[in-house]
Structure formats: C-alpha cells, structure tokens
Amino acid sequence: xxxxxxxxxxxxxxxxxxxxxxxxxxxxxxxxxxxxxxxxxxxxxxxxxxxxxxxxxxxxxxxxxxxxxxxxxxxxxxxxxxxxxxxxxxxxxxxxxxxxxxxxxxxxxxxxxxxxxxxxxxxxxxxxxxxxxxxxxxxxxxxxxxxxxxxxxxxxxxxxxxxxxxxxxxxxxxxxxxxxxxxxxxxxxxxxxxxxxxxxxxxxxxxxxxxxxxxxxxxxxxxxxxxxxxxxxxxxxxxxxxxxxxxxxxxxxxxxxxxxxxxxxxxxxxxxxxxxxxxxxxxxxxxxxxxxxxxxxxxxxxxxxxxxxxxxxxxxxxxxxxxxxxxxxxxxxxxxxxxxxxxxxxxxxxxxxxxxxxxxxxxxxxxxxxxxxxxxxxxxxxxxxxxxxxxxxxxxxxxxxxxxxxxxxxxxxxxxxxxxxxxxxxxxxxxxxxxxxxxxxxxxxxxxxxxxxxxxxxxxx
Length: 461
Known about the structure:
Blueprint: H1 2-29, E1 39-49, E2 57-69, E3 76-78, E4 85-89, E5 92-96, E6 102-105, E7 111-116, E8 119-123, E9 129-133, E10 146-147, E11 150-151, E12 153-154, E13 161-169, H2 179-182, E14 200-207, E15 213-222, E16 228-235, E17 251-259, E18 265-273, E19 279-281, H3 284-287, E20 291-296, E21 299-306, E22 309-311, E23 317-319, E24 325-327, E25 332-338, E26 344-352, E27 357-362, E28 367-373, E29 375-377, E30 385-389, E31 392-395, E32 402-404, E33 412-416, E34 418-420, H4 426-460
Parallel strand pairs: 13-21, 13-24
Antiparallel strand pairs: 1-2, 3-34, 4-33, 5-6, 5-9, 5-29, 6-31, 7-8, 8-11, 9-10, 9-28, 12-26, 13-25, 14-15, 15-16, 16-17, 17-18, 18-19, 20-21, 22-23, 26-27, 27-28, 29-32, 30-31
Helix pairs in contact: 1-4
GO cellular component, one term: bacterial-type flagellum basal body
Keywords: Bacterial flagellum
Subcellular location: Bacterial flagellum basal body
C-alpha cells in the first residue's frame, strides 16, 4: 500500500472524526431543544484485498456506517401551560401543513390560533395544525385524522330538565282550596297568587331558547288530606306566557303528591294547565316524570320536572337519592339544577387529559369536549423516519404509521402542562467530543508522519 496509502488511511480517519464531531456538536447545540432526539455516529472499518493469490485483507481506514437517531425518552419539564404537551412513552404527535403534508414530532409546544371566523385550533410555531379525531373516537387512521376545530361560540341551550331536592313541612294545616282555584292572572296580572294563599314558594330559573334567563316559581300548598301536597309550576312573570290571556296565564304544570307514614312519596298525579284552568292529566306511567311544554315569549319549550322519583308502567313509584319528602321540618331546598345555559364565548383550554381528550371552556362556565389527540407509533422501525428539521420527522415512502389513542394502559400517554426535553446526555457527549478530538489529532499525526517519511525518501533519491 505504501506511504500514500497510509496517508489515505489517516485521511479516512480525519473525515470520519469530522462527521462524528459534527453529530456530537449537533447534539450539544440542541440540548435545550424541546422534543429533540439525539443522534449517534456509527463507525465501520474498511478493508482491501492485498493479494488475489493468498486472499489476505488489510485495513484501509474507517468510514461512517450510519448516523442513527436515538428515540429514547427525554426528561419531562412542567410548564403549567395547558397547551404544552409531553408524550410519556411511545408515539409522535401528528401535524399537517396548509398543503396537507403529514409530519410527526415529539415537540409539544402548541398554542391556540384562529383558523376561520368561527373556529380556533391548536398549532405549532410553524403554523402546522395538530391533528385529532372526534372526542369519543377509539380508533383512527390517516384518512380520519384532521385539524380539530374549537368553536369560538357555544350556542345557548334551552332548559329541558329541572331537578330539585325538597323537604315539605308536614305541620302545615290541611287546605281544601286548590292552588288552581286560587290562581288568577286576570284579577292579579303581576301576582296571580296572593301572599298567604300558599304554604311556600321555591324560586327557580331556567333559560329560554335565546339563552335569556327566565325566573320561575314552584308554589306548594297542603292538600285536602294529611298526607298530600299540591304543587304548581309557573312563570314568575306571567306576561312572558306566549299562549295568550286567561285566568291561568303563566301557570303550566299542576300536581298532587301523596306521602307515606315515613314521609316518603308513594304516588303522584300531574296535569298540564290551560289558560282557562282546564287540567289535562299526564300519563306518568308512560312519561316516568312529569313533563310540560312552556310557551315563553311565543316559543315552545318542553321541560321535565324531576323531584327525585319515577313513576313505573305499573304506576308504582321508584324513589331516587334525594327524592322529595314530607316531614315535620321547615320547608327546605337542598339542591336545584337545570340543564340550560346562555351563549358562551371561548375562554380557555384548561386541561388535556392523559387520554388526549381536549375540553374547551366558555364564558358561560360550561365546557365541551372538542377533540381527541391520536398519536402515531413506529415502534421497532423508527429508522423509517427521517429528520427534516424543526423537530419534525417524515415517514419514508411506503411506511405506514399505527395510530392509537393515548392512555396509561397504552404504549404512550399525554401530559398537559409539560414538555419533553431533549434526550441528549451532555456528559456523554462531552466524553465523545474528547475522544473524537484525540482521534482527530492522532489521525493528523499519521498523515504528517507519513508525509515526513515520504519527504525523507525523496531526499535520498
């Protein structure tokens, strides 16, 4: 091989060490890059056949066999920013650009950005959208993943259910005149029931179809026997009744409740109330719970009254937790809920759970699930991914990812308010740098030594 061959061998070492130093330098400079996956330089020796007769082989230097990306887990850093996401375990976030190209990343630095006049979405600093699926989706593929949209406005919801846990006073005297007979919106348009004509009133509210809050009242009075009570559901302002004029304007639902010796409810009868006071009985054995259609400012709205019991098809009563009771105790309301709400404007994303479900909160204090993040997995063949910069990977031609919904039981889960740091080990990289430096110096010495020997040889000639 001679001295020139020796110089070439030294050159291959210099070239390999230079590439190795570049890889190490890249790892060190990306020590603080979120989601960065460091690389490892893999060296290989080169051989040359010295003689075809004897078949002996001699070393001919070194070369770079591969620069392998290491996909080990990086440490997790808490940020308390809900849209900062870290993957613990396997998986990659799936993002797409405005041309529909798909990329994969472990960099979970996302923020809320406007995509059109009605929606927001989560994007990274490159303007790429984080892809997801419907909130309750269990599976997904590349065709079903999409940039999920967060509505800027949550439409108002009209109340359809009124629920209350009530105590009625068993010490109230028996009353022979019903609430329907006492109620008169013609004589008293603003206060159809006079003070003292009922035992108690519970002040509630509901939301109409426009999202406007509407005060309502549940009047209660002792029935014509010691074990009964009557109730009347009415608007606090009878003028909002869009049905027209009449004695019962503002009143919609009337009922009688019968209680057992222990104060538990044992039977119920309810009727819808017409403007003239006609009562239309409801079939509670079919409905289960009393329902009525309110007409608020000309718009019909069906409402169910839940007092903690259900009437079965056989007309028996199933009492639920918190059912209405009649006992020797002052009137009390332990709870009241209704399922309506006004229009809400997007406020924040408060948390993204480990299963990747994203919930958006609105100014009406309501939240809705808007999407579920799916992760891509290349376990066992991560080498099918190629780095393209900015923390992004691209799948090579013909490679298909497996998409899964993250969870603690799956191969990877998501932490909200956290980021995955670079997986570079600085101490290890500094040792590599020292070794590469010494190797580079030694290979340089090989070349200078061979050069000096060649110069001596030429002088002697």
